[in-house]
Amino acid sequence: MDVIQNSNSDMGDSQDSDPFLVTPETDEYDALGFLVRNRGERYSPAEIAARADISEASASKTLTRLSEKELVEHDKGTYYVNPDRAEHLKNRLESVDAAVQLFEAAPDDDAYAEPGWEDHVPSIDKNGNNGEPRSETSSSDLVEDPQE
C-alpha cells in the first residue's frame, strides 16, 4: 500500500480522506523516515541527502514537496519533523512498510485464474450434495421421531 491519508496539518485520524503518496524506496520516503527518526532536529538539504542516502541534487525538491504536503517543517534553510507529529508519522510509515511486506509475502500463483480450477473443487449445492454418491438413507431417517 502506498497511500497515506492526510486531511489537515495535524494528519487527522484514520478516517482522513485526502490522500498523499509516500511510496517506499523513494527519496520522499527516505527523507521523511530520516527526519522522523531524528524528530525535532534541524537539517539542511545537504545533510539530509548524506544521511538519508539520497542524491543531493534531488534533496531540495524532495524536501520542498514534503513541506508543501505539510509533512515536514521548513525554517531558515533547514527541515525537521515537529516532535508532536513524529509518532503519528512514524506509525503511518510503519503501516506502509507492513502493507508492502504483506503483498511481497503473498503467493504469486492464483489457482482461480487457471482454466478448469472448478473441476478440482468438490461441488456443494444448497441441498447439501457435495458431488459424492448418496446413500439410500436420508438425513431425516437418522433422526428418531420422539412421538413414535
Automatic annotation (TrEMBL):
Recorded GO molecular functions are: DNA-binding transcription factor activity
Polar residues compositional bias: what residue ranges? 1-14, 126-141
The segment(s) forming the HTH marR-type domain are: 28-74
Tell me what this protein is called.
MarR family protein
Gene3D superfamilies the UniProt entry points to: Winged helix-like DNA-binding domain superfamily/Winged helix DNA-binding domain (1.10.10.10)
Q: Which InterPro entries match?
A: ArsR-like_HTH, HTH_MarR-typ, WH-like_DNA-bd_sf, WH_DNA-bd_sf
Q: Which organism is it from?
A: Natronobacterium haloterrestre (Halobiforma haloterrestris)
The superkingdom listed in its UniProt entry is: Archaea
Q: Give the residue ranges for region: Disordered.
A: 1-23, 107-148
Top-down, what is the taxonomic lineage of the species of origin? Archaea, Methanobacteriati, Methanobacteriota, Stenosarchaea group, Halobacteria
